[in-house]
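ARCHIVE CARD
CATEGORY: sequence design from structure
SOURCE FIELD: tokenized fold
FIELD CONTENT:
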């Protein structure tokens, strides 16, 4: 109020007179007598959606849902245990209490440290973004809270013999619909991520020409990273599958359900080599087969959509025809 022009201050004073009498509520509101509302934990999340708009660019509706839900869950967990406190009022004791709640869940609920750490990470991302972008100048008590994580459970690859005799056995996948079966068979000799296969549109499946291939592109969705955009030759059963289903996968595109559908089918039909195996195991099997065949690391990384480990990426990493010739040697 003190910094406003004289005319504006006078206008506000006049506006506090209601029906010829001073109105205390109007005076408090117009003359700076009401303190600015503090940003609470739930309000911070509402603000974050607007402040982090850049993170949503290119995401499909399903990707957006999967991005939002962990942030909502972390916020809901904190509010349920500590309360919807203002960010400025959150203390180190509050965070230790929240950590203790998670510790008790880890001890009795069969959860992993990763679950707790995700909550802590998501809260930190939201609060630090709001603190910075709204220029709050708060010192948030977010340090030294994470739990030590145990050994990560890696997805094992399918053995080549298992793929040949069980997954590729005539009729073994007939219980899957055509789209799901094509995604599975396409994965055998391409190693794409399930979501990448499901997101292929008709124009990304290129069966004509000297080297049939698929193109992994960020159309209608975000890819995991920049190096995920790539061309992969089609060989063996993968090529045959795409020739039978060249129009893409509208049932699964932009939806997070292909893995659940296939994994349930594999389990119900005795097609999981071990309980730890899943659809994603075909990706690891493809990478192992390339490694065993002595395919150059640069080509392997390019085909898998992996980065070069900090090294600059020069050239094209081998022509598509050259990659196809290498993959034909290991195709199933």
């Amino acid at each position: 109020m003190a910094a406003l022009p004289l005319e504006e201050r006078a206008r506000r004073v006049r506006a506090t007179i209601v029906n010829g009498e001073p109105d205390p509520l109007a005076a408090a509101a117009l003359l700076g007598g009401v303190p600015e509302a503090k940003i609470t934990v739930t309000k911070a999340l509402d603000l974050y959606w607007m402040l982090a708009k850049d993170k949503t660019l290119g995401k499909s509706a399903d990707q957006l849902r999967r991005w939002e839900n962990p942030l909502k869950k972390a916020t809901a967990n904190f509010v349920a245990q500590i309360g919807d406190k203002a960010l400025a009022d959150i203390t180190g004791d509050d965070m230790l209490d929240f950590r203790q709640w998670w510790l008790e869940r880890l001890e009795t609920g069969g959860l992993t440290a990763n679950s707790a750490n995700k909550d802590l990470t998501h809260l930190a991302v939201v609060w630090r973004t709001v603190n910075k972008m709204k220029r709050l100048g708060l010192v948030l008590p977010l340090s030294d809270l994470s739990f030590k994580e145990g050994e990560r459970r890696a997805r094992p690859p399918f053995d080549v013999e298992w793929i040949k005799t069980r997954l590729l056995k005539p009729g073994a996948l007939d219980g899957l619909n055509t789209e799901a079966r094509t995604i599975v068979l396409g994965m055998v000799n391409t190693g794409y991520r399930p979501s990448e296969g499901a997101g292929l549109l008709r124009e990304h499946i290129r069966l004509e020409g000297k080297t049939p291939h698929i193109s992994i592109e960020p159309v209608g969705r975000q890819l995991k990273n920049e190096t995920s955009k790539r061309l992969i030759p089609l060989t063996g059963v993968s090529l045959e599958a795409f020739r039978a289903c060249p129009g893409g996968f509208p049932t699964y595109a932009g939806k997070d359900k292909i893995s659940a559908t296939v994994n349930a089918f594999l389990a119900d039909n005795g097609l999981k080599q071990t309980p730890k195996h899943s659809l994603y195991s075909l990706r690891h099997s493809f990478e192992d087969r390339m490694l065993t065949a002595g395919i150059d690391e640069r080509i392997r990384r390019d085909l898998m959509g992996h980065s070069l480990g900090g090294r600059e990426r020069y050239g094209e990493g081998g022509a598509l025809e050259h990659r196809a010739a290498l993959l034909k040697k290991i195709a199933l």
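CARD ANNOTATION: Residues 1-35 form one domain. The CA atoms of residues 56 and 67 lie 9 Å apart.
SHELF: design records, drawer C
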